[in-house]
Amino acid sequence: MDAETADDRFTPRLRYYGAGDLATYWQLQRAAEVVEGFDPAAPPDEVNGILELHNARLFVEAGFIPTDVVEDDREALVAAAKRIRRTVAQWFGALEDDNLADMLTEVDWQYRQHLLDLLAGLGVFGRCSATAMLTALDGANVHIGDMLTSKRLVENYDMTIRERLLADPNRAELVIRHHLGGKMMNETFLPASFTPADSRALMEAYIDSTEPNPNYLKLIADAPIDSKSGVDAKLVVKAKRRYDAMIEEFFKTTPGIKTGCTVAVSSTQVEPAKVTLNEMVMEYTFSQAWLEDTLDFPSVLNNFQFLFEFAPQDGLLTLPAFDGERRGLELAMGMNGAKDYRTGHIFTAKDRATLLQTAMYQRYLGTKDIDLEEVLRWYFEEHLLAEYGIAGFVFSPSSPTANYLERCRNLFAEMESVATQFGLLVEDGEIDHDVAAAGADLVRYRTIPSAQEGKYIYATDHTEIRTILHILFSDQSHLTYINEDMRGENAVDLLRRNKVSYESLHEYQQPLVDKLIEHGVIENTGDRIRLKDSDLFHVLKSLNDYEAAAYHHLNAKCHAHVDRMVNAGWLVRRSSLLTDAEAAYFNYNLNSVDFSNGPKLRNKYQHGIQPKGNGEAQHQHTYYSALRLMVALTIKINDEFWLLDATKKQQA
Hints:
This protein is mainly alpha-helical and 652 residues long.
């Protein structure tokens, strides 16, 4: 084999990725060259050559032509693309049962979807038998998972595809992903003949198989009960038990890495709080002097909000999982169910830390004869009346002699009672406890009202705002790396830590910077590119960090930026007590309204179906979780009354 042939063999083939992918722009020149060099009299005689021609045509027909191509040459490319379309159709039109295996051999992996699309669109599935087609696709390295992405293939070869699925328990993974998996790159289809009973039987065989993948077992264990998917309570329990057993066995034989966090009170520490990282363990220490100086009830609640950082900025809770916290590797490697609450390493770390802080503080207050539930009672029944003139709230603490099971049941009930009372106050201007009792039901945390008009700001799906947020804050942004000496976790980090000039940017980065300059987010001083408007940046950062911004906490300059972006359709304002992310966090912890993988604490304890066998320790853990949620809800309610009071004072 000569050198030129070897180079050709390993040259990456052309592939059209669509308008939203940078790889499309990088291939413009080559796509034009392939189309320009096409000779209808001597078309490729093998499948990969035909599919590359097809991809080149897609570039031209979508308008992706190099900008330096003059008009006459542009018209010639469009005409050549039409000839390519006819040639590709003729090649696929010649496929029959007798030649399928010879014609569809060793298809390049990146062309599998294009191959299936053309076989479907040009009617090949309709005229070729299941035996010949599926044998040929096997030889072309098109796997059954790829086949399920073609609706017409599945429809034409219904029974054969069903038989293939049921023949191997490992193919349950395809069914699990179809029914239970989150958003996938390509939609999948199952045969009409594949019944829910087939689905359940295949998943059960998979659970019982020799080496099931724990990720798929977890999807079944967290799945909602659904007759359409074949998932019932027995299957969920069976998957959970197998998953737990596999994880336990894994850690018996694998040392792993020590991670987690510790919480302690220091008798010598001067700072109110200190956080250090010891290898992979976060260590939180709090000053004993500070805690002893803040034993009055208002300061106890303030410590949760600011010392433990439940809501240190604009009354927005830090507790939820936010999309911006998950890094690129987590997004690429994670496996989530369709109704999963999407968590990540950062959420897990702060969830563990805030729970330990709640447990530590509740125990510490106990040594000072202070019951945290009594602090909550004081807030609702005494403080609101004295500070804001708001009467009628009732909060009934647990009995001092109650065990943790009883405390859990009481606290979940009181949490719903407080939410209901607050909703009645906003809607009716008063709390009528007879109305509250008559309408007692599962609290819909997403719909708890607010007295503040347009309280929260959210980003819409408008391309401009989504692009700006991605460029600035995503670790997958193309504006994170200039060279080994100039890099950052995201664009903001890059620009803050480095003196980045416009000239130092790569060519593909300059349009991104131009966009940010155009919208006033950054500026080019000549020496460097830097963030320009701190007020605009505050709004954008809140949208990224909290998935919302609190309008009434912002200053007038921020309001001007928000109002402009609302008018442009980039942002929208809505009112509720909780942000969307905060409401999702409450639902994840408490019920199954939105998510299937949460602990469902409220449901279990209110219906008396909490798991047995783990004793008082299990209920103690749940009690700390309930306290954390109740304190968080109190912080949100207090923020509402503080804003109302501030507005009244401004208007006076």
